[in-house]
Amino acid sequence: MEVIINQQKRELPNHVTTIEQLREHFGLQNTVVMIEHNGKALSADEQNDTHITAGDQIEMVRFVGGG
Questions:
Q1: How far apart are the first and last CA of the chain?
Q2: Distance CA 38, CA 23 (A)
Q3: How far apart are CA 20 and CA 48, in angstroms?
Q4: Computed from CA positions of residues 12, 17, 23, 27, in that sequence, does the dihedral angle turn out positive or negative?
Q5: CA atoms of 35 and 17, how far apart (whole Å)
Q6: What's the average model confidence in pLDDT over 29-53?
Q7: Is 25 exposed, middle or buried (0-12, 13-18, 19+ CB in 10 A)?
Q8: In this predicted model, what pLDDT tens digit does every residue of 54-66 receive, in sequence order?
Q9: What count of other Cβ atoms lies within 10 Å of the Cβ of residue 19?
Q10: CA distance 62 to 60
Q11: Secondary structure of residue 38 in the 3-state scheme
């Protein structure tokens, strides 16, 4: 299925159907990530239950510390 992630078209495998699975697909399951799905910021709990469909727009921002 094709979705838009961080303003780029991406093809996802058929088994990726939720935001939680999307995080696992990109290896971000143990990383603090802010995710917006179709313009709505998702809490950590909402990510488990939010389903992805073709054409969805997803923004993912990973927080990185440094100094």
A1: 39
A2: 16
A3: 5
A4: negative
A5: 15
A6: 93
A7: middle
A8: 999 999 998 777 7
A9: 22
A10: 7
A11: coil
